[in-house]
């Protein structure tokens, strides 16, 4: 009889293998909280400027908090991502990553231009990005603004971009099974919910966990949740969403590029306002571009004065 049981066991294994991998686990359940990157731009600035009167406040209010790390063009992106997610995994923490390398990035805004040089280069990059995560738990925001920033693009450029994002969703689905990946869906003041739902559907929303809203913007959590739920209603797929709360403490004042009077929002948490998570996706204190209250600070550069103003709400 023992050989019959053993044969049944082999058959069962073969059937499981034929059916494909088991359902992925939630990265939230696999970890014990969000990962804090001790080398984030605000943490590094505070560490390198210990005698500056602003350093302690910036480290306490921003540098010590869980913030997403943004990844752009990197010829060794797979290893870079593997090392970062490995460090988080070694501490049983959940890292939040942003894939930000689409060709023609920030095409209409202009301040954060760049990205991979070709479609082929992008496909290689995003495939290596997903492979770098592998089975480790992670959260990934895919290409902020890419599906909202169509206003200055031709239909051919739009189709090409949507195709690249669709490929990205397939790579995360195939190569990073314990990752919650979210396509970026702009913000509540940009693209109508039904239009955004159509774009998300074309870009492979069903291959990933859901979508993100308010990345690098200032709309309140309630405004963002209302918009996100409207998008979900049009999608009709049960998609989930996350909200960037990094700078939305005082809401939106009609400006998007380093506006005055904004404030830090609630720090990263699971749940809240119907979202999967509330996250700090944008790094507080990092400039949106040479504009607003930081007219000489390029996009992506940390400015301690911007950080302090977000802490104080001025």
TrEMBL record:
Gene3D superfamilies assigned to the protein according to its UniProt record, in alphabetical order: 1, 4-beta cellobiohydrolase
Quick check: keyword Ribonucleoprotein in the entry? no
A Pfam cross-reference name: Glyco_hydro_6
List the SUPFAM superfamilies hit by this protein, alphabetically.
Answer: Glycosyl hydrolases family 6, cellulases
Give the annotated active site: 145 (proton donor)
Keyword Disulfide bond belongs to the record? yes
The signal peptide, as residue positions, is 1-24
Q: Known EC number(s)?
A: 3.2.1.-
What superkingdom does the record give? Bacteria
Q: Which UniProt keywords apply?
A: Carbohydrate metabolism, Cellulose degradation, Disulfide bond, Glycosidase, Hydrolase, Polysaccharide degradation, Signal
Among InterPro entries, the record links this protein to: Beta_cellobiohydrolase, Beta_cellobiohydrolase_sf, Glyco_hydro_6_CS
Residue runs in coiled coils: none
Q: Which family does it belong to?
A: Belongs to the glycosyl hydrolase family 6.
Protein name per UniProt = Glucanase
Gene source species? Lentzea flava
């Amino acid at each position: 009889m023992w050989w019959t049981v053993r044969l049944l066991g082999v058959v069962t294994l073969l059937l499981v293998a034929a059916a494909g991998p088991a359902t992925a686990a939630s990265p939230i359940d696999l970890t014990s909280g969000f990962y804090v990157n001790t080398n984030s731009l605000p943490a590094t600035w505070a560490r390198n400027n210990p005698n500056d009167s602003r350093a302690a406040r910036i480290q306490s209010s921003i540098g010590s908090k869980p913030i997403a790390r943004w990844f752009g063009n990197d010829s060794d992106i797979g290893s870079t991502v593997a090392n970062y997610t490995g460090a988080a995994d070694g501490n049983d923490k959940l890292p939040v990553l942003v894939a930000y390398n689409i060709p023609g990035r920030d095409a209409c805004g202009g301040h954060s231009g760049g990205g991979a040089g070709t479609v082929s280069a992008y496909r290689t990059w995003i495939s290596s990005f997903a492979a770098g995560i592998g089975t480790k738990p992670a959260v990934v925001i895919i290409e902020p603004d890419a599906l909202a920033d169509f206003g200055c693009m031709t239909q051919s450029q739009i189709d090409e971009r949507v195709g690249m994002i669709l490929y990205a969703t397939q790579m995360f689905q195939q190569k990073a099974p314990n990752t919650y990946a979210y396509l970026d869906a702009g913000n509540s003041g940009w693209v109508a919910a039904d239009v955004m739902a159509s774009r998300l559907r074309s870009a492979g929303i069903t291959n990933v966990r859901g979508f993100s809203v308010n990345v690098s913007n200032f709309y309140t959590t309630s405004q963002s949740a209302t918009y996100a739920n409207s998008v979900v209603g049009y999608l009709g797929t049960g998609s989930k969403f996350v909200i960037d709360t990094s700078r939305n403490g005082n809401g939106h004042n009609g400006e998007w590029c380093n506006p005055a009077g904004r404030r830090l929002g609630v720090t990263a948490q699971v749940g809240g306002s119907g979202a999967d998570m509330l996250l700090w996706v944008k790094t507080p204190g990092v400039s949106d571009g040479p504009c607003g209250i930081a007219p000489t600070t390029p996009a992506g550069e940390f400015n301690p004065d911007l950080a302090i103003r977000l802490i104080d709400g001025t």
